[in-house]
Design a protein that fits this description.
Layout: H1 5-15, H2 28-43, H3 50-57, H4 61-67, H5 71-87, H6 98-107, H7 109-114, H8 120-144, H9 150-174, H10 181-196
Length: about 200
């Protein structure tokens, strides 16, 4: 089966989990995504250009522009791919427990803190929400069964998603540096419980 763009993106993240830029190996997309992660993590800012990412990856800027419309798009795609890989998100509806989510953001806290700078923050939030919301909705439906309407589930999903991202971003930016994933997990669990208390059990730990 032919390798897809998502497969290549995930492979880049898997092979270079620390964000270190690999030598150019002929796979332009893989090299560019890894280089983008590296520049943000080392420099502490997403305010980089496609040309800078391309140079770090050892490829031409015209080649980078042919694959990505902007540096922000490249960085967000790399971030999403790493999240999908580490959280083992699948198309079957399986989604990890809240603790895994907290561990991921704790592990890459400096990267996500840098990604709060500039226009890329809103783009990343929108893409992350689109990734996570369907799984939150599925978990809510598992808890409440058929006792509530799809409209109610949709509203709960939107509220939990928005509040969870607000809490996560607040923890990333303003939380004490010594705070571990457990402190984020507690915040997220409180949000979930506040919405589904009395309707069933919380998401798995």
């Amino acid at each position: 089966m032919a390798e897809t763009g998502e497969d290549r993106t995930t492979a880049a993240v898997e092979q270079h989990p620390t964000g270190a830029a690999p030598p150019h190996d002929g796979d332009l997309e893989r090299s560019l995504l890894a280089a983008g992660l590296a520049l943000v993590e080392v420099g502490g800012t997403p305010l980089v250009t496609l040309a800078e990412i391309a140079a770090h990856a050892g490829v031409g800027s015209d080649q980078a522009a042919a694959l990505f419309p902007s540096a922000n798009e490249l960085l967000v795609r790399a971030a999403i791919a790493r999240c999908v890989h580490e959280l083992r998100v699948s198309s079957t509806g399986a989604f990890p427990p809240l603790s895994a989510y907290a561990q991921h953001f704790s592990r890459h806290r400096e990267f996500y803190r840098a990604m709060r700078i500039g226009e890329v923050a809103a783009l990343l939030d929108a893409r992350m929400a689109a990734l996570v919301a369907p799984f939150i909705a599925e978990q809510i439906r598992m808890v409440v069964g058929s006792r509530v309407s799809d409209d109610v589930v949709g509203t709960m999903t939107a509220e939990i998603t928005a509040e969870s991202f607000e809490a996560t971003n607040g923890w990333i930016v303003d939380g004490p540096g010594s705070a571990g994933p457990e402190s984020l997990y507690v915040r997220l669990e409180a949000i979930v419980l506040s919405h589904i208390e009395g309707l069933g059990t919380p998401f798995g730990r």
